[in-house]
Amino acid sequence: MTDEPKSWINKNVIALSIIIVAIVASAYLYLNTTPARDYETYSRFGFSFEHPEGMELWEQGMGGIGIATTTAGIVQGTLVEDEIPEIIGVIWIPFESS
Which residue ranges traverse the bilayer (predicted)? Predict the structure, then answer.
């Protein structure tokens, strides 16, 4: 009877140890294989955000009609590196008061 709880605890400790090692190893690999990236700041129409350097951005009015204004519009961007596209989209519209 005294061996049973120890066996159960040992199995849990081993399983937890394996999970922790896997998480630490994954984090180490991710941090050491992900290249550092430079960012640029987009700042127009009363807001700003950072995007990867070299991303192509374009602005347009709502629904693709006209030009973007401080009241409403769309900013879209794309960047293709290593055949993996990164896409960003920001939409802003007028605030409706009740």
Answer: 12-31
Q: Say whether both 26 and 53 belong to one domain.
A: no
Question: What range defines the domain where residue 25 resides?
Answer: 1-34
Total structural domains within the chain: 2
Residue 52: CA atoms inside 13 Å, Cβ hemisphere, count?
15
Residue 8 in any domain: the answer is yes
C-alpha–C-alpha distance, residues 66 and 74, integer Å? 11
Task: Report if pTM > 0.85.
Answer: no
